[in-house]
């Protein structure tokens, strides 16, 4: 299959959360006999935590008000990789209807036959998805856009750091958090560091590994608990790697203690797709939900709630929110990432981190 997403500026795609999934089961025959577009239950698998809380309020609860005879059953997972594992275990007899996950993971799911193509005749709002966010083979489109950012303590840094090099500044040794691979955050930092070292990460990450080995002794934790954002907010660390959307949310929650910025060397996109499970047991109602999730109202509401950029062309944002979501107009310096390559390299890079970086 062709790299199905043109995603973002200069035909880039993100890996993002990229590596965590989950799902359930059912059968195509039973779905065809009893399924309804306006009633039934839709089983959704997606992210846990603050993402789940805000998506419930901004999208799912309004959907259930509009379609009172459809109930959404939300199965939450911390990562896309967990979602994918669950879906793989239910292949051929799915209990899940819809999955929202990182694009790099959904691409793998498409290749494995876990997801079904969709058509605008059944999901009209597919027509409004920006061309860069559509899947060329008809599989699930990008439903929300984000990017990896540098998290920082605003008391320590009155002005946002301009370069990723700040992570290597001895003044901050022991006050840095990095979520190691297989997390998207660690994988992204690997690609960013490789680019900083004028290295093609597809050919080699030797230079990136050498530079990250220099960073490792300064890292307080490679598994921030409860997460990378609270690590900075509570003062455990002053620098970290995170996602812009959640960073913006937690900046408000911390009364501005946490900041998030995109350093000048560039960053990578994190894109989530919305996917119809192959042989979904509630196929028709699932398509109704996907259509709603791609509506301008739902897209704008979730952007207002958690600062993910909409991917439909007819969504409208307030100026205040527009300034805080990741720009998709070409103004952000984006490092192109090969989704298929990174999906294949994840295990190798994770092993390299364990053996050669974290152990330093």
TrEMBL record:
Q: Which controlled-vocabulary keywords does the entry list?
A: Signal
Q: Give the residue range of the signal peptide.
A: 1-23
The record's section on PROSITE patterns has: PROKAR_LIPOPROTEIN
What InterPro entries is this protein classified in? SBP
Report any Pfam family annotated for this entry: SBP_bac_8
Sorted alphabetically, which PANTHER family does this protein's record hold? ABC TRANSPORTER SUBSTRATE-BINDING PROTEIN (PTHR30006:SF2), THIAMINE-BINDING PERIPLASMIC PROTEIN-RELATED (PTHR30006)
Q: What is this protein called?
A: Extracellular solute-binding protein
Give the organism, scientific name: Arthrobacter vasquezii
């Amino acid at each position: 299959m062709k790299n199905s997403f043109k995603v973002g500026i200069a035909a880039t795609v993100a890996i993002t959360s990229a590596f965590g999934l989950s799902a359930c089961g059912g059968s195509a025959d039973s779905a065809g006999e009893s399924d309804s577009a306006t009633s039934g239950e839709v089983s959704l698998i997606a992210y846990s935590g603050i993402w789940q809380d805000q998506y419930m309020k901004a999208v799912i609860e309004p959907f259930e008000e509009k379609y009172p005879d459809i109930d959404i059953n939300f199965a939450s997972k911390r990562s896309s990789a967990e979602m994918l594992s669950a879906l793989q275990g239910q292949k051929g007899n799915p209990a899940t209807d819809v999955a929202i996950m990182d694009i790099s993971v959904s691409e793998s799911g498409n290749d494995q036959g876990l997801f079904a193509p969709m058509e605008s005749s059944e999901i009209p709002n597919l027509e409004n998805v920006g061309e860069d966010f559509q899947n060329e083979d008809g599989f699930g489109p990008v439903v929300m856009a984000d990017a990896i950012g540098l998290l920082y303590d605003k008391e320590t840094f009155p002005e946002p750091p301009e370069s990723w090099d700040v992570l290597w500044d001895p003044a901050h040794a022991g006050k840095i958090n990095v979520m190691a691979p297989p997390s998207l955050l660690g994988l992204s930092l690997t690609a960013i560091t490789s680019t900083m070292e004028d290295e093609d990460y597809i050919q080699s990450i030797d230079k990136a590994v050498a530079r990250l080995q220099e960073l490792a002794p300064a890292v307080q934790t490679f598994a921030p608990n409860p997460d990378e954002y609270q690590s900075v907010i509570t003062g455990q660390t002053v620098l970290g790697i995170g996602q812009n959307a959640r960073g913006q949310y937690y900046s408000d929650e911390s009364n501005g203690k946490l900041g998030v910025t995109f350093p000048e060397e560039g960053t990578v996109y994190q894109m989530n797709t919305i996917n119809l499970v192959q042989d979904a047991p509630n196929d028709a109602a699932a398509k109704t939900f996907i259509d709603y999730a791609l509506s301008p109202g739902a897209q704008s509401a979730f952007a207002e709630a958690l600062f993910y950029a909409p991917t439909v062309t007819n969504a409208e944002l307030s100026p205040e929110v527009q300034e805080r979501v990741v720009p998709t107009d070409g103004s952000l310096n984006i490092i192109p990432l090969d989704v298929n390559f990174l999906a294949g390299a994840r295990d190798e890079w994770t092993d390299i981190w364990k053996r050669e970086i974290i152990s330093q």
